[in-house]
């Protein structure tokens, strides 16, 4: 499974996960289009209230899955199958307990939760109705990401891709069914979102129940120490995922503060959809490579791990440059899908895009290095780079640049943060003589 040239390993592991996550992101965008076209502005606002909670759920699941994946791949690479199954059991206990706790507390404090997340009195009922499905079905959302990661580490990346694609496609189909023929309104949209992960879990479970690989469900007493180790290894992934929502929040504040108003906020929302697609490409590829890096480091094949990393750097940067070219060439057509009757909004978003996306070709390099260091148990460097590109540099630049260069400079802060983070990553690489770029 882990034999072959870097290009073969890249295609075998990275590409399937990228395809699966891309479908997952596309369904999010299509979901927003369905709600906006069918139910209008209030329903979109109510659904938007749930986005931070969904981001937290996904971030936590990815953190647990990535952390467990790193530990499992290392144990499998060393021939410790029993130890790998123990880590798997701890991860199941961790996310199972978290999912049930979220479902219970979410239902108990549903209306206060909706208010906390920003629901106004006018949309409180709609937002609470949408959130009920999200919190009630939270365990399935968590397990869909966990089991997908475990299947990849057990040598079946295509099955993980199939589960993600099936969940995304079912969500789109059910969105249409529930909102149009059945006319269930926003509850139908929420129900479709909740059911998608269930299809993914149903596809993944037979692998573990049928003991088709090294990982399967056994009676394991939960270990708090083991759960803590999983979370510690997964922190860099959590920061990368969770910071997307935090950065969006900070950008919204800056756009309002510097006078761009509703036009700027609406444009940033559409640019955010494009950003989501680009970042999903990189995150999917990086997640897919995690088992490869972990296995090769565990088996002492450092040179092969370095070869895969160097090959991947070229691919990531190349994809980033292609994406930037597509932003420049097709950005206007993309934005017109969301605002066909508002040419002023489309024009504004197109005008700001070159500045906003100029450094995104390096986002892939940064994400790859976080994944590489995380999988290689160089957790401090992974965490440092993850924090730099998401929680440190963008907020700092948003606070400083407008004061020095004017309000227009806010559109460059995200990309400039990626460029500076990439320079820091290069500096970290050069400090380790055995790592050659």
Descriptive account of the structure:
- This protein is mostly helical and 437 residues long.
- The protein folds into 2 domains: 1-222, no CATH class; 235-437, no CATH class.
- 84% of the residues lie in helices and 0% in strands.
- The chain has 15 helices and no strands.
- It has helices spanning 6-39, 41-77, 81-108, 110-116, 124-136, 138-153, 157-179, 185-209, 224-257, 261-298, 302-338, 343-357, 363-375, 379-405, 413-430.
- Helix 1 packs antiparallel against helix 2 (41-77), helix 10 packs parallel to helix 13 and helix 11 (302-338) packs across helix 13.
- The protein is globular, with a radius of gyration of 21 Å.
- Residues 433-437 have low confidence and may be disordered.
Secondary-structure map:
Elements: H1 6-39, H2 41-77, H3 81-108, H4 110-116, H5 124-136, H6 138-153, H7 157-179, H8 185-209, H9 224-257, H10 261-298, H11 302-338, H12 343-357, H13 363-375, H14 379-405, H15 413-430
Helix pairs in contact: 1-2, 1-7, 1-8, 1-10, 1-11, 2-3, 2-5, 2-6, 2-9, 2-10, 3-5, 3-6, 3-9, 4-5, 5-8, 6-7, 6-8, 7-8, 9-10, 9-13, 9-14, 10-11, 10-12, 10-13, 11-12, 11-13, 13-14, 13-15, 14-15
Which regions contain 5 or more consecutive residues with pLDDT less than 50?
A: 433-437
How many distinct domains?
2
Radius of gyration based on Cα positions? 21 Å
Q: Please, how many helices?
A: 15
Helix content: over 70%
**Shape descriptor:** globular
The average pLDDT score comes to 85
Query: Main sheet, how many strands, which sense, barrel?
Result: none
Number of strands: 0
Binned strand content: under 5%
Structural category:
mainly alpha
Tell me the span between the first and last alpha carbons: 26 Å
- H/E element sequence: HHHHHHHHHHHHHHH
């Amino acid at each position: 499974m882990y034999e072959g040239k870097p290009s073969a390993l890249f295609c075998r592991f990275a590409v399937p996960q990228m395809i699966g996550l891309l479908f997952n992101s596309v369904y999010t965008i299509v979901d927003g289009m369905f709600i906006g076209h069918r139910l209008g502005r209030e329903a979109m606002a109510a659904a938007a209230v749930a986005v931070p909670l969904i981001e937290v759920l996904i971030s936590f699941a990815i953190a647990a899955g990535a952390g467990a994946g790193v530990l499992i791949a290392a144990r499998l690479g060393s021939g410790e199958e029993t130890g790998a199954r123990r880590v798997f059991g701890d991860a199941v206990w961790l996310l199972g307990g978290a999912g049930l706790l979220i479902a219970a507390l979410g239902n108990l404090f549903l209306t206060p939760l909706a208010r906390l997340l920003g629901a106004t009195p006018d949309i409180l009922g709609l937002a609470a109705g949408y959130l009920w499905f999200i919190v009630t079905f939270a365990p399935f959302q968590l397990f869909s990401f966990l089991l997908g990661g475990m299947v990849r580490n057990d040598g079946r990346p295509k099955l993980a891709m199939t589960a993600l694609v099936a969940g995304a496609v079912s969500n789109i189909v059910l969105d249409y069914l529930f909102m149009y023929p059945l006319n269930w309104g926003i509850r139908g949209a929420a129900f479709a979102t909740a059911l998608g992960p269930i299809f993914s879990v149903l596809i993944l479970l037979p692998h573990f129940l049928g003991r088709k690989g090294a990982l399967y469900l056994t009676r394991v007493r939960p270990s708090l120490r083991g759960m803590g180790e999983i979370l510690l290894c997964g922190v860099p992934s959590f920061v990368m995922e969770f910071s997307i929502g935090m950065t969006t929040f900070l950008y919204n504040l800056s756009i309002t503060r510097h006078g761009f108003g509703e036009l700027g906020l609406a444009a940033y929302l559409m640019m955010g959809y494009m950003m989501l697609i680009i970042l999903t490409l990189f995150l999917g590829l990086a997640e897919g490579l995690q088992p490869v890096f972990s296995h090769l480091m565990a088996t002492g094949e450092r040179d092969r791990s370095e070869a895969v990393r160097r090959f991947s750097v070229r691919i990531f940067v190349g994809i980033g440059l292609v994406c930037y070219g597509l932003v420049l060439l097709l950005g206007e057509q993309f934005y017109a899908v969301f605002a066909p009757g508002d040419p002023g909004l489309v024009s504004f978003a197109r005008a700001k895009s070159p500045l906003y996306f100029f450094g995104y070709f390096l986002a892939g390099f940064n994400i790859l290095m976080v994944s590489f260091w995380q999988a290689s148990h160089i957790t401090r460097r992974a965490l440092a780079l993850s924090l730099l590109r998401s929680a440190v540099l963008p907020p700092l630049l948003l606070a400083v640049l407008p004061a020095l260069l004017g309000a227009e400079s806010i559109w460059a802060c995200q990309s400039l943060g990626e460029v500076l983070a990439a320079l820091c990553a290069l500096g970290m690489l050069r400090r380790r003589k055995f790592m050659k770029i």
